[in-house]
Specification:
Length: 429
């Protein structure tokens, strides 16, 4: 297979959630272009509408307008769908609201831990009632909060962002330390909007100055580095050609996969570097490469946490017998599926030596053609990672389903086909 052409990944999922939430907290009407149309962002929009936000339809190519006079107590449960980011960040926002709201989600989300967010929010003064242990559904009654200084037990941007949003809506100071730096989109947006955020002695500090007013804004969302990673991987595994992936967010807290790929022997060029709303953006030029195994350290994991499935797939195509190890990736058990076990089990299902041992993941490279059936567990990133493996010449990789890609990359299969089949990725206008 050869790749060729120009392709644009969809809007960044993490920035899209934060943009629509901050727009809903802003005074006046905000306008967002390039917002991801994936189901997760629609979940955030639905939850905000349930609180009285006026949000225009989230659809491909549309500028989304967000306006709220004030949040009102919801009449029914707020459904976060499959989206952990919606649930956890909204808990932070609701902690500062003087009414009760119940959050719930789909079966996958209802299995994911929430105390990592609710415990520090309780320490700030939020009243949170569990219905069934450390998971959704939860009822939160916000109101008067107090300042918090907190060290997160894991490097999680969702925890950090929930606490910063609680500080903003509750008008109290928040100081956060994390074991390793997680994605910093919330911090960048706060700074972009002039919302009293800075770094002090390695801590992230939010300090309100008087009654905080979030100004309305216009924002253009860059393409999602995590979605681009699948296209990069397809190009690296190709037999020839060159792929240009336009308008990709290259925030260093998100691009660990490019650093790891470099060590594995694949160089991805960044051209046309620019700034978009406080975020670095570039076009990526990717070519096929011969890969070797590497070690991914615990410190690197937060910068590539969503790329482990696709990096593991690439590691399986490294030179015969060369091993890749991902250290301390236990957090992957707590994603949309038990990704750690499923990456290993699915690689084995297509004839690759792979194992999850304690919190580490080991993958052995092979040149054998991958053949077998993949259980995606309806996890979008597993579906896309193994679809990329299916592009290897002679591969016979069958996915249990493909619909889950709608969570973060609705046009994934169209784009994957376009860059391979016609060699004419379409430049969107
Ligand atoms: C996200 C943070 C990460 C990531 C998720 C999106 C965010 O989760 O895996 O896809 O937008 O803040 P954790 O905070 O649980 O690491």
């Amino acid at each position: 297979m050869k790749v060729q052409g120009v392709v644009r990944p969809p809007g960044d999922k993490s920035i899209s959630h934060r943009a629509v939430m901050l727009a809903a907290l802003a005074r006046g009407t905000s306008e967002i272009t390039g917002l991801l149309t994936g189901d997760d962002v629609k979940s955030s929009a639905r939850v905000l509408r349930g609180l009285g936000a006026d949000i225009s339809t989230v659809r491909e190519g549309a500028t989304v307008k967000v306006h709220v006079s004030r949040f009102t107590s919801p009449v029914s449960r707020l459904h976060c769908g499959n989206s952990g980011t919606t649930a956890r960040l909204m808990l932070g926002i609701l902690a500062g609201q003087p009414f009760a709201a119940t959050l719930t989600g789909d079966a996958s989300l209802r299995r994911r831990p929430m105390r990592r967010v609710t415990e520090p929010l309780r320490a700030m003064g939020a009243d949170i009632e569990e219905k069934g242990g450390d998971a959704l559904p939860l009822t939160i009654r916000g109101g008067r909060l107090r300042a918090l200084t907190y060290t997160t037990p894991v490097a999680s941007a969702q925890i950090k962002s929930a606490l910063l949003l609680a500080g903003l809506t509750g008008n109290v100071g928040v100081t956060i330390r994390e074991p390793y730096r997680s994605r910093d989109h919330t911090e960048r947006l706060f700074v972009h909007l002039g919302l009293g955020l800075h770094e002090r002695a390695g801590a992230i500090v939010y300090e309100p100055s008087g009654r905080p007013v979030v100004p309305s804004f216009r924002l253009s969302i860059p393409g999602d580095a995590s979605s681009a990673a699948f296209l990069v991987a397809a190009a690296v595994l190709a037999e020839g050609g060159e792929l240009v992936i336009e308008n990709v967010g290259v925030n260093p807290t998100r691009t660990g996969f490019l650093v790891v790929l470099e060590r594995m022997g694949a160089h991805v060029e960044r051209v046309n570097l620019r700034d978009e709303g406080g975020e670095p953006v570039a076009d990526l030029v990717t070519r096929p490469a011969a890969l070797r195994g590497t070690e991914v350290s615990a410190a690197e994991v937060p910068t590539l946490v969503d790329e482990v499935p696709v990096l593991a797939v690439l590691a399986s195509r490294a030179s015969e017998g060369s091993e890749t190890v991902f250290r301390e990736v236990g957090e992957l058990r707590l994603k949309e599926s038990n990704r750690l076990e499923l990456i290993a089990a699915n690689l084995r299902a297509v004839g690759v030596e792979a194992e999850a041992r304690c919190n580490d993941l080991f993958v052995c490279g092979t040149t054998r053609r991958p053949t077998g059936r993949i259980d995606t567990a309806r996890d979008h990133r597993l579906a896309m990672a193994f679809a990329v493996l299916g592009t290897v010449p002679g591969a016979e990789v069958r996915l249990s389903e493909r619909a889950s890609v709608a969570i973060s990359y609705p046009q994934f299969f169209r784009d994957l086909k376009r860059i391979r089949e016609t060699g004419q990725g379409k430049r969107e206008t």
